[in-house]
C-alpha cells in the first residue's frame, strides 16, 4: 500500500508538470524504478532532461598581490561609491545663484525704467507750475509729491535688490565651500568603506589559503588512519587491542572525513563569495595561489615612523577632528551658545588618539609574537627532520616497520604544516599592521 501511494504521488507530479504517465517508455520506466520498487526523483528528472547537478563554473585564478587592484576596479559597491563622488563633484552650485542674479537684474532694469519715467514726468510737471493758476499749481504739486514717493520706492527696491545680489555672492561662496566639505567628507567615508571591502576580500583570500592547508592535513590524517586500520584489525584478531580501540579509530576516521567534507563545502562557498566581491557573475568562481613572501618587507618595518603614519591616516581620528571642526563652527555661528559641545569634541579627539596609538601598538606586538612563533616552528621542524632521518635509517636496516616509518613521515609533515600555519598567521598580522599604517584599525 505504501509503495502504491508513493507511485501515485510521483505520477501525479508528472501529470501536473505536463507529462502523461502513459508517455513513460519502458526504457524510461526502467531508469526511474529502483530494485526496491520505489521511484527515484533523480531518475524522473533525468528522464525529463532536467539537470540533476549544478552547472560547472568557470574558474578564475587570483594572486594576493593582484587582489586589491581587482577589487577596487570591479567590485560593484566600490563602483557605486565612485558614481556618488562623481555626482557630487559635478554639482554646479553657481547655476541656481546665476539664475537668481539674472532675475534680480531683470527686475532692477524694469524698476530703473520706472524711476526714469517718474523723473521725466516730475520734470515736466515742475516746468508747467510757473504758468499754471493756483488751483492747477496745487494739483501739479500733489502729483509731483506722489510721483516722488513712487520714484523713491522704486529706487529703494533697486537698492534692496542690489544688497540681495551682494548677499548671493557670499551665499554662493559659502555653498561652494559647503559642497567642497561635503565632497571631502563623503570621499573620506567612502574611501574607508572601500578599504573595508578590500580588507574583507583579503581576509577571505587568506582564509582560503588556510582551508587548503587544513584539507591537506585532514587528507594526510585520513591516510594515516587507513594505514593503521588493517594493522589494528590484525591486532584485534590476536587479542592485542579491543573492539573498542578499533571502533574508536573508525570513529576518528569518520570524524576526519566529515570535517573534510564540511571544509570543502566551506571552501566552495568562500570561493563564490570572493568571486562576487571581484565583480564576477554566479557562473564564475575563483582559486587562490598562496601568499607572497614578506620576509624582506618585515625587515623594513620602522615602528616610530609607522605609528606617525597611522595617526596621520587614522579614519577614527579624522572623524573626531571633523566633529570638532563642526562643533567649533556651530559655536562661532551662534548655533549653540555654550562651549560644552566643543569641549566634548576635544575630549573625544584626544581619546581617539590614545585609542588609535594603543591599537596600533597591539598590532605591532602581535606581529612580533607571530614572528617568534614562526621561529619556534622552524626550530621544531629542524628537530622533526633530524628525528625522521633516524627513523629512515632504522627503516632501511629493518629495525622499524613500514607503518612506523610512515608515521614518522607524518610527524615530519605535521611539523611542515605547523610552519605553514605560522606563516599564514604572520602574514595576517603583517597585513593588519599595513592596514593600520593606512589608518584602518
UniProtKB/TrEMBL annotation:
Superkingdom of the source species: Bacteria
Stretches assigned to coiled coil: 64-135, 360-425
Coiled coil recorded as keyword: yes
Entry keyword set: Coiled coil, Signal
GO MF term list: efflux transmembrane transporter activity
Keyword Zinc-finger: no
Signal sequence bounds: 1-23
Gene3D superfamilies associated with the record: Outer membrane efflux proteins (OEP) (1.20.1600.10)
InterPro entries (UniProt xref): MdtP/NodT-like
Protein known as: TolC family protein
Organism: Candidatus Butyricicoccus avistercoris
Amino acid at each position: 500500500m505504501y509503495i502504491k501511494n508513493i507511485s501515485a504521488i510521483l505520477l501525479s507530479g508528472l501529470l501536473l508538470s505536463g507529462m502523461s504517465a502513459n508517455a513513460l517508455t519502458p526504457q524510461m520506466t526502467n531508469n526511474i524504478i529502483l530494485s526496491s520498487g520505489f521511484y527515484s526523483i533523480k531518475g524522473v528528472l533525468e528522464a525529463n532532461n532536467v539537470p540533476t547537478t549544478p552547472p560547472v563554473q568557470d574558474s578564475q585564478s587570483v594572486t594576493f598581490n593582484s587582489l586589491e587592484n581587482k577589487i577596487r576596479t570591479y567590485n560593484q559597491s566600490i563602483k557605486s561609491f565612485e558614481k556618488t563622488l562623481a555626482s557630487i563633484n559635478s554639482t554646479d552650485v553657481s547655476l541656481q545663484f546665476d539664475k537668481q542674479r539674472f532675475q534680480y537684474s531683470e527686475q532692477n532694469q524694469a524698476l530703473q525704467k520706472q524711476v526714469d519715467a517718474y523723473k521725466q514726468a516730475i520734470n515736466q510737471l515742475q516746468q508747467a507750475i510757473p504758468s499754471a493758476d493756483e488751483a492747477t499749481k496745487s494739483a501739479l504739486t500733489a502729483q509731483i509729491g506722489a510721483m516722488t514717493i513712487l520714484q523713491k520706492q522704486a529706487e529703494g527696491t533697486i537698492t534692496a535688490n542690489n544688497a540681495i545680489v551682494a548677499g548671493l555672492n557670499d551665499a554662493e561662496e559659502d555653498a561652494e565651500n559647503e559642497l567642497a566639505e561635503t565632497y571631502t567628507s563623503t570621499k573620506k567615508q567612502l574611501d574607508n568603506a572601500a578599504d573595508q571591502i578590500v580588507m574583507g576580500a583579503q581576509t577571505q583570500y587568506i582564509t582560503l589559503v588556510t582551508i587548503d592547508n587544513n584539507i591537506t592535513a585532514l587528507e594526510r590524517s585520513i591516510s594515516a588512519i587507513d594505514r593503521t586500520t588493517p594493522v589494528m584489525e590484525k591486532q584485534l584478531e590476536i587479542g592485542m587491542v579491543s573492539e573498542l580501540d578499533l571502533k574508536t579509530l573508525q570513529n576518528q576516521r569518520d570524524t576526519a572525513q566529515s570535517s573534510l567534507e564540511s571544509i570543502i563545502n566551506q571552501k566552495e562557498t568562500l570561493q563564490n563569495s570572493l568571486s562576487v566581491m571581484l565583480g564576477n557573475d554566479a557562473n564564475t568562481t575563483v582559486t587562490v595561489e598562496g601568499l607572497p613572501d614578506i620576509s624582506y618587507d618585515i625587515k623594513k618595518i620602522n615602528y616610530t615612523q609607522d605609528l606617525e603614519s597611522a595617526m596621520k591616516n587614522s579614519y577614527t581620528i579624522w572623524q573626531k577632528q571633523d566633529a570638532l571642526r563642526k562643533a567649533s563652527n556651530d559655536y562661532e555661528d551662534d548655533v549653540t551658545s555654550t562651549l560644552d559641545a566643543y569641549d566634548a569634541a576635544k575630549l573625544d579627539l584626544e581619546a581617539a588618539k590614545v585609542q588609535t596609538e594603543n591599537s596600533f601598538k597591539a598590532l605591532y606586538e602581535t606581529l612580533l609574537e607571530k614572528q617568534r612563533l614562526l621561529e619556534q616552528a622552524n626550530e621544531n621542524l629542524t628537530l622533526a627532520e633530524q628525528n625522521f632521518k633516524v627513523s629512515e635509517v632504522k627503516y632501511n636496516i629493518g629495525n622499524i616497520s613500514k607503518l612506523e616509518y610512515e608515521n614518522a613521515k607524518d610527524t615530519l609533515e605535521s611539523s611542515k604544516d605547523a610552519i605553514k600555519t605560522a606563516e599564514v598567521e604572520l602574514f595576517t598580522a603583517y597585513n593588519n599592521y599595513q592596514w593600520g599604517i593606512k589608518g584602518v584599525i
